[in-house]
Prior knowledge:
The chain is mainly beta. 9% of the residues lie in helices and 53% in strands. The two termini are 25 Å apart.
Amino acid sequence: MVASILLAVLLVFVLSAGSVGAHATTASAPQPVWAYGVVKVVSVGPLHAQMGWIYQGNATVGYSVILNQTNTSDSQYELSVHRTMGVRFSIEYCLDSCAASTSYATLNFSAWETVDSFANVTTGGSVSIAGSNVTALALENDSSRLAANVTEVVHSYLPVNGVNVLRERYLSASVASQATVNFSTPLGLFPLALGPSSPLNWSSASNFSATGSTQLDYYYHAEVPTGNITVGPVSSHASVQPSGQVAVAGSYAPDRTITFGGVTFPAIQLVVSGPFTVREGFLLVPTGADIFGTSAKPWDSNASGETTAAMASLDARASEDGHVGIVASSWVVNANSANVAQTAAVGGTGVAPLGIAASSMYPVSSTTVQGTPTSVGQATTDQTCLTAGTGCPNLPGVPAKLLRPLILLGIAAAVVAAVVVSAVAVIAERRRVPPPVYPNASLYPPGAAGPTPVPPARRAPEAPPPEPEEDPLGHLW
């Protein structure tokens, strides 16, 4: 990856597996359901570079969380969670006019993950503050299932030795992971009492035992004047680290708060170390399955874009409206991409003489997205937006040329989703607790299978038509 560019977040988790040692779910109290999240749409450009070249792009970034709580005792609760995070962006370089350019390069990128999880938490845990133990909300165990996908389509029609040359590149990668983690003692997350008067710093640690595995698959295809290049499908499999320790370092300051509906919540900072990435403070994702992490992925050498995401704060307190008081979070998302106009010529006979300074073309490299409480219906709509690109907030002024390749992106994502879910079903352990019913469960039918992803149809090398007055694909973004 050469330079930072358009920002975007994302994540789409669909995990559903019962936890070993989970408490019985026979509580008589109601099971409160709540949701939070955010979807943000960003547009950049048109920006003018050297030699008449123009850069423009757009992104849709966000995450969505739906939680369902069952009280298993006065101090212990089971949380079933459906979480999605994702980022979709489109970038275009074009000569003179993006409405009808005879020379152009486009990158359409999508990354998402979904997680379904059962986690048991207790208000009887503890964290250490200045050497003293303080009562805290703590994680007892977690069993989760993840599906994730990265898809990108690159089209270019760029001059080489004075003649425009068509090139196309396609990459699809999928991840399926299942993990069950049990802690020897509850892992403290944050103190039950976070006073408004002074800053606090705390820590906790616990040994764990775990089972599970991660499956990674990817496919790459490129069409260039010198011939076609195909890599894969390539598959790899790894087991979850069976034992070790997870540590938590947390902090809170009185000036770091956020208010929802007139109620103020601490904005807690949590740093978790160990072989898991943590979502929303308590969802455990094996590090090798984290497509938004900074560790290397098997398909990196064939990729043009990538995104990373990290939780900036957890908006939570001990309880709220009869349930655990985790009500929102904020995330810092970075979207990075190679300079599409320069790298599109890889595999050809020369480099397109665009003269574009990559660093000057990416005015936005990261953003923070702050979630808010929302309805379950809205959260479901947001999850569909982040995974499939439909039902998203409108982004006015998106060029038709940027929208057309998204048809291929959407079809590819749907095919890979079916393949991922099939893989998850193979590696997942039998659920020990009845699964919750989610409104969008039909998006991930158990046992569904799809064909091996194939590259998109070759694009004709003539100049694209002018943008129509009314684009029938406008609902995609």
